[in-house]
UniProtKB/TrEMBL annotation:
Residues 27-174 form the Uracil-DNA glycosylase-like domain. This is Type-4 uracil-DNA glycosylase. It comes from Faecalibacterium prausnitzii. It comes from the Bacteria. Gene3D superfamilies: Uracil-DNA glycosylase-like domain.
Length: 188
């Protein structure tokens, strides 16, 4: 199966109640050969309206960070979320919603076979790295699991609210660039 076939299947998903309030499924965006996968928790209002991940104000900030380290969602990375439908009022996804949606992300993961996964925010990091992962204490640290490097960093939306964390987040992206140079074959 390829990403487009999986996306087509995902667009009609009714596995959890979030499908009843969505405008669009936010499957993911990027290149199918991406060695670097970014994972957030779930779409917000702008993402739900456009059907694309990280397109609102936080997405604009993410794109600036990506640009600074020579990444581009249309050229050499992939962006997805734990849940593919917007939780009402942008609340955290409920455990049952995350669980219902994880097969989609697992299949994206299987198709992409990333070498590096960057978890954007606490929810994604705790789901993909470790249940007690602390972004404020462990951001920018690479953890190897099954031959894949995982790193948690601040969610761009959190950086818009807590600007004092922007230098630390930028340092995480600089560390990411270095790790890409070490383990990726064709990202740069």
């Amino acid at each position: 199966m390829d990403l487009e076939t999986l996306r087509t299947q995902c667009l009609s998903c009714t596995r959890c109640p979030l499908h009843t309030t969505r405008t669009n499924v936010v499957f993911g965006q990027g290149v199918p050969t991406a060695e670097v996968l970014f994972v957030g928790e779930g779409p917000g209002q702008s993402e739900d309206e456009q059907g694309l991940p990280f397109v609102g104000r936080s997405g604009q900030l993410l794109d600036k960070y990506l640009f600074a380290i020579d990444l581009d969602r249309n050229q050499n990375c992939y962006i997805a979320n734990i849940v593919k439908c917007r939780p009402p009022q942008n609340r955290d996804p409920l455990p049952a919603e995350s669980e219902a949606c994880m097969p989609w992300l697992r299949e994206q993961f299987r198709i992409l076979q990333p070498k590096i996964v960057v978890c954007l925010g606490r929810i994604a990091a705790q789901r993909m790295i470790r249940a007690d992962f602390s972004v404020t204490k462990e951001h920018g640290t690479f953890i190897e699991k099954g031959g894949i490097w995982f790193m948690g960093t601040f969610h761009p939306a959190a950086l818009l609210r807590q600007k004092q964390n922007k230098p630390d987040a930028f340092a995480d992206f600089l560390a990411l660039r270095e790790k890409i140079g070490q383990v990726c074959e064709h990202t740069y």
